[in-house]
Amino acid sequence: MLTLQGKHMYLRALEPEDLDFIYTIENDESIWELSSTQTPYSRYLIKQYLENAHKDIYEVKQLRLVIANENHESIGLIDLFDCDFKNKRAGIGILIYSKSDRQQGFGNEALKLLMSYAKTHLDLHQLFCNISEDNIMSLNLFESNGFIKIGLKKDWNYVNGSYKNEYFLQRIFN
């Protein structure tokens, strides 16, 4: 089982016991904008997903890890997606689910851990992310970790009856 230990939290592989946590997150309409989700997920589909979560990152081109606090409570998720090992790049996304757990340093620590893992263990050259123009907390998090705004995608996402711009950010490792 993959575990990446931080000072106040750790990242771990998905487990069957994460079914309720993943189900809650994937079916929370208030955050669908972050993942471009448009329909709810059944427990059955999430159970199938968890049963296949052990597959190799090189096969499925993604890695999803749980962010857990010092009390071993699941507080969020962090993902590598669209892994392109030929060009040594991947997308990265993070979610701290409960508002009370946000701005506590968990996201920053999780991002640093996964960035280090991506560079040293996966030999990636760069990471990228897409963040809504109005998601100031996420923009600050990624920019404080060396991500640079590369471009602004105009009217990129249609959310609640209007279009939103989205930034494309990139972090190139030296």
TrEMBL record:
Its EC number is 2.3.-.-. Keywords: Acyltransferase, Transferase. It comes from the Bacteria. Residues 9-170 form the N-acetyltransferase domain. PROSITE patterns: GNAT. One of its GO terms (molecular function) is acyltransferase activity. It holds the Pfam family Acetyltransf_3. It is an enzyme of class 2 (transferase). This is GNAT family N-acetyltransferase. It comes from Bizionia hallyeonensis.
